[in-house]
Amino acid sequence: MCGYTCIRYLVFFFNVIFFITGAGLVGTGAYLRIEKDDYLDLCDKYSWATGANLLLAVGAIILVVAFFGCYGAWKESSCLLGIFFVFLLIIFVLELAAGIYAATEKSKVEDELKGCLNGTVTDNDYRKAWEKFEEEFECCGVNGKSDYIYHPQINDTCMGKAYKDKGCYNQIKDDLKNNLVIVIGVGIGFAVIQILGMVMSLWMICQIKSGGEMA
Predict the structure, then answer these.
(1) Average pLDDT, 10 consecutive residues per value, the chain (215 residues)
(2) Domain map (residue ranges) of the chain
(3) Membrane spanning segments where (predicted)?
């Protein structure tokens, strides 16, 4: 009896934390949309807007999933807990698939990023975005000043700076690698929490259906 009650409250509090996580992701996505929308507008495929939209979508999904988990645990509803378990399993599988894809397609993604950057570096429509990025990260063009030497119509301010030989592509790639370590760590921790949530919810469903403590 005590074990069932403990699991019930664990599932409930787990989903409270899950709900707060979702709200945090929505808030972060909204912040990026408002404050950082032009940060990586050097390349439309890798813009902050795309990442922000993804955070907003994932955060919203987590809020819905957490609601089913919280309400299901509180009301001891095997139906709501079942929906929570299925959603959590789907999210886990998608995260696993995304991780495998990122690991196997790493070089392809890097090549696509470099190709996209090469396509915008001498495009006047992207000038302001490039100059802002170059000044903030102290880099010049995709590969360095050579990107502008053969395009005299582009008068980029980084040509007269000390970092004129430092390309922005390597800067972006290094930043992505540094952030990847954090993402992997957070992802592993989040996956462990998800597995615990699925195990606890499944155990609670079995107890409810077998005539455990009922409200």
Answers:
(1) 70 81 76 57 58 71 84 84 87 77 72 82 83 86 85 75 88 74 69 82 83 50
(2) 1-213
(3) 12-34, 54-74, 81-103, 180-205
